# Entry
Amino acid sequence: MNNAIEASARALRDRGPAPAIAVLLGSGWGLFGDAVEDAFEVRYDELPAFPRLAVGGHSGRLRCGRVGATPVVVLGGRKHAYETGEADAMKGAIRTLAAWGVRVLVQTNAAGSLDAGVRPGELMLISDHINLAQRSPLFGEPGDDRFVDMNDAYDAALRARARAVAARLATPLHEGVYAWYMGPQFETPAEIRMFRLLGAAAVGMSTVPETILARHAGLRVLALSLLTNMGAGMEAQPLSHAHTLASAGVAGARAVALLSALVQELEP
Ligand code: HPA
# Structure
């Protein structure tokens, strides 16, 4: 383990014991931080292994407390691969969580829908992913454990619990394959047609590197997409980051209610 990760894990350990569950918030999910009670906060820039954030809409803070009775740590945003071209921007953060003692990573994101029947504002559980960017956060990693088994990358038992919680809340929850597109430009309509042919149900610019890192570190992963728009060319609407944030804001409350109920039932 490198020094920055050790120092970051030590700084967190000094503040308290690790919760079993970490929640990584993407665009549109920021309100979830308010559901965490009795919390202490640590800025990413106080943790040497954590990234410095640039994209608007992310807090860049780690918030550690309880949702209901369940201890949880919430990461207010990620650094994206499109910022530098490197897929390992979250390597130090994910490894710090694992070194601290976290065992489950719940990821959230905003994504474009590739399924004509799944509309903006709806939620999707990620069942699997396609790494279209063909980048890995494990490039250059030594050792045989870099050959990570990606079967069941999105934990089947955790997904079953998520479906049960959504059913109880009567919140429609789709399930499908997420395609990681490097960005930062949005996809072309031709690319979107290709991704639909490949069987992807949603497309976005995040999540996959963190899933790979988490599986490499031995964490179980659950991931939820808030669909903020239809894929390019599927509708007349032009795409923009401002539109993603605006439409995530509208649907955010329902997403946050589902996530709050969910984390209380994930205790491993
Ligand atoms: N494409 C890529 N990333 C996204 C999209 C999209 O349509 N919507 C939200 N994030």
Summary: The helical segments are 3-15, 91-100, 156-168, 189-197, 208-216, 241-263.
